[in-house]
Design a protein that fits this description.
alpha+beta; Jelly Rolls; 2 domains; eight-stranded antiparallel β-sheet; globular
Length: 292
């Protein structure tokens, strides 16, 4: 009897000890419902989305962000064998500057100015031995818009180039071009040697309204072409040609050839552009002992 009484007394205490508390049961139910609603919202099954949480459906529909600097950088990479065009519909754009460069590889490109259907008033063929040391820079006149500049990389796919066409801050002829201009008859040529302190030269070619056909070469050593430009312009007075050619090192000579017949003379001015004033003519003598 004593054992049965003790068992009856211990039974309520044991049941109470192992039974869940009312407060804990309510709290657990609330947490379970909130977790279920959050999981359903995250899975896109409907229902309101809790504050601070975002469902996966809007993220899946969002578009990828644009590439950084795509619109800020005007330089475009032109792969070998491809063509890029720049169109300007406004007649207020009267001239454009074209700059071509590479990462140290050769540069071989065709540049054309399109104005209207099947009308190419200006075109040129450009070759540069090293597009990093001597980038190509020229100004193309574009009166009476709309105009389109087309640049084709005619090199192999292993030789891409960086092209930039700008209508702002275009180079203008130096004042020395007017006093140093010289007439070159059709079929004739002129050479212009420069001192090693000259880092770049400016070339200005024009005619009295006749077509302009010319070949501009930068030589450094005998028959060593560093840069070659073959130019055609339908009107050398309305569309003169202006170029800045880099001439690093010594022994630079610019050769201008009038490839047109004798009936089409042209005027050429080749003047120094940038001059290195800190250049020293006393170079290092290797193997010499003249100082002893």
């Amino acid at each position: 009897m004593k054992l049965s009484a003790l068992a009856l007394l211990a039974l309520p205490m044991g049941v109470a000890a192992f039974s869940p508390q009312p407060f804990g049961r309510v709290t657990t139910a609330l947490n379970s419902d909130a977790t279920t609603r959050a999981m359903e919202s995250a899975a896109g099954l409907g229902g309101p989305t809790p504050a601070g949480m975002t469902g996966s459906a809007p993220i899946a529909k969002s578009q990828p962000p644009p590439r950084a600097g795509l619109m800020d950088d005007p330089t475009i990479l032109v792969q070998g064998g491809s063509l890029k065009t720049w169109s300007y519909a406004s007649p207020a754009v009267e001239r454009l500057q074209v700059v071509l460069s590479t990462e140290g590889r050769p540069l071989d490109a065709d540049i054309e100015l399109w104005q209207g259907p099947d009308n190419t008033p200006c075109k040129m063929r450009v070759y540069v031995e090293d597009g990093s040391i001597r980038p190509f820079s020229a100004v193309i006149e574009t009166p009476r818009g709309p105009n389109t500049v087309a640049i084709r990389n005619i090199g192999q796919i292993e030789f891409p180039l960086a092209a930039c066409v700008a209508a702002d801050d275009v180079d203008r002829p130096l004042p020395e071009c007017a006093s140093n201009s010289m007439t070159i008859q059709g079929g004739a040529l002129r050479t212009y040697p420069f001192d090693p302190s000259v880092e770049s030269v400016q070339v200005l070619l024009k005619t009295d309204g006749r077509p302009l056909n010319a070949r501009i070469e930068l030589l450094q050593g005998p028959n060593n072409n560093k840069q070659v430009i073959e130019l055609y312009t339908e009107d050398g007075l309305d569309r003169p040609f202006l170029a800045n050619i880099g001439t690093p090192g010594s022994g630079n000579v610019v050769r201008v050839v009038n490839t047109a017949p004798v009936e089409f003379p042209m005027t050429a001015a080749v003047v120094p552009g940038a001059i290195n004033k800190d250049f020293s003519t006393s170079g290092v003598v290797i193997g010499g002992d003249a100082g002893w």
